[in-house]
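Lecture 7 notes. Example A: sequence first, then its structure tokens.
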Amino acid sequence: MSSPNTYPCSSSALPSSPQPTSVVASSSSTEVPASSALAPVRGNKRIYAGFVAAPSLEEVADSVVSDSGDESETTSQELARLRSEIHSSQAAQAIAEASFTKEIMRRESLQMACSSAHREMKQTQTEVHRLRERQSSVLQELDAFNVQVDVHKELYQRLENCIKSAEDEFQRLTQYTSPQKKVFTATVATNTSQIRRLHHLLSDSDIADDSANTRLERRNEDIRDQVKRVSSTNKALCFSTCELNWELLDVSGQTRDILKRLYVMKDSTMSGENFAAGLAWIACREGPEEQL
């Protein structure tokens, strides 16, 4: 070859492949590490097999050139084809590295998602444990409530039995008292009619017993009323004629002084009869009823 050229060569960036290694082609023999695992190159399988087995790029070029025995027959077309194969392998390596980078990023994102999922799972487990404890306490409370419900049901049943027995006793007493009530009602009606007859009889007897004593008592009452009216009229007349007999009225000295002052200070517009009637009324209030 007329001029040395450098061609970096590396393996495909797959997850199981090691780090890529570079191969430098020059006029001197450049060695390719035997331990490097090269990915398949798109193109001729024979060229790829020779490329893997050859220790240098010159031998790779010799392997792809026809065995005519004349080195001068290697044309620029063969070198160009070889370069295109190398470029295609480099392009495949770049694509593989990009895919490997994407795979790494995907795996990292998956690991982050997995860590987040683990945290959420732990939180969920904690929440489930708390909910189970809460469920256990709720079940215990429910059992206690069920016991209370059973007790209340039993008490309700007892009350129902008591009510039934009371209703039966009430029916029995009603059946027993119904004829007694009828007998009592008939007895009361009989006694009422007897009392009514006795009342009429007593009324008739009172009318019949209206004797002379009763008539005299009524006559005395009428006379007393007339005497009271005459005494009142007489006192009013004494006041009007200024001939009031204080001894007859039997009033106290203080009341007598008050009456005198009232008589002296009487209103000129008040008639003598009205003033005398007022004084007589005051005097009557002071004296005993028997002397009126």
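Example B, a different protein, same format:
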Amino acid sequence: VKSGECDIAKKMFDKMPVRDVVTWNTIIGGYVKNSRFHDVLSVFRGMLSAKVEPDGFTFASVVTGCARLGSFCNAKWVHGLMVEKRVELNYILSAALVDMYAKCGRIDVSKRVFESVVRDHVSVWNAMINGLAIHGLALDATAVFSRMEVENVLPDSVSFIGILKACSHCGLVEVGRKYFEMMQNRFLITPQLEHYGTMIDLLGRAGHLEEACSVIKAMSVKPDVVIWRALLSACRIHGKKELGEFAIANISRHESGDFVLLSNMYCSFKNWHGAERVRQMMKIKGVRKKRGKSWIEFGNSIHQFNAADQSHAETKAIYRVLEGLMQRAKLEGFTPLTDLVLMDVSEEEKEENLTFHSEKLALAYGVLKSSPGSKITISKNLQTAKISQGIARDAKRMGSSLYKHQLIHLGLWHASIVLNLEGQEVPAAASIPKRNDSVECLGHVAASKRASGLTINCSSCASGFTSC
């Protein structure tokens, strides 16, 4: 498992005549470390079927798996099991639950969990600050940071990564500078690569590229690939071609996203020759562009879409809804952001390219299957910077203004209301475990359910969840 050979480990595990909780925890934890989060849930269900009682270590791994998948259905199911089995919450589990709900798009539930648990360890505070940061709630994040000091919990290195990330996502340059200086001068924390990377991202997003370069030159550690990618992304946003070329020249191990950023930067200048040169370089180096996918959770399934996807069983209905959305949006003055399509094609082709993007197909499916006023949560596997922000904005304007839905868009990039996700590929219809309880309470055990003659109270009610 430690060497990444999970399949071999699983075969050995399956051959074991006796498997105790430690053995199950080892294989589940191995899948988490190797980012095989669907396998985490699959093995966990096998553990329950084998009548092996999970412990706190088990749930710590499974909660992490749910967070990385961004599946709210699985999240509330696992949390419900923890309540049912009366698992004692230590600071690790408390922080994991706060983080899980935030990454599943439910920052409201994350806040309630945070308020209901013991908060005497910095990890719990860090989880809340980071959750608020990735949802773009910078002012809330700074308020939690201040409250942490009032409650005599000292911030650590991770706390400042979270608060700087919050400032970066909302463009709070002065506030970010204040925290960066506070970290060093007041709390005597030496900046690490993660702090520098977030600071470069903050300055770069805001257009302070000269200051970002000065920070890189003054770094006490050698800049790594994350630093140069943050600078490259800023160059793409602000059209700094020469500086972008300098940044990519310092990236030793290239990924497809690096070349895509550089290619898109050339395209934004209508330099089609430069963009083609980058694509040829990708071919020579054997780098392939990762295909963008979006997915939406509905009922007991997760539905995945690619651009111009026609594989879904309800494709015709989805396209009808999307066409209706586009027509009604245009009547209300909506104009597609065709300047974000970085291809040498006509305006009509650019508009068509935007129309059938994976996010909008997922949105159309959400509108098709849900009622007005409901919440639509869309996840995406890639960071595609400016174009995804534009598409998400288009989707939000169409879905929210026309059908009165609340849209939360999840992805690796940040938009106005967005959740950070680790980019997991999700099967077209991942099965969600069914509950045996007849009473739904956000996955928690109903107050009326009894075990061994004792009432198992729903701990969530006291923290503001839907009443039992």
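Note on Example B: The longest helix spans residues 385-403. The radius of gyration is 23 Å.
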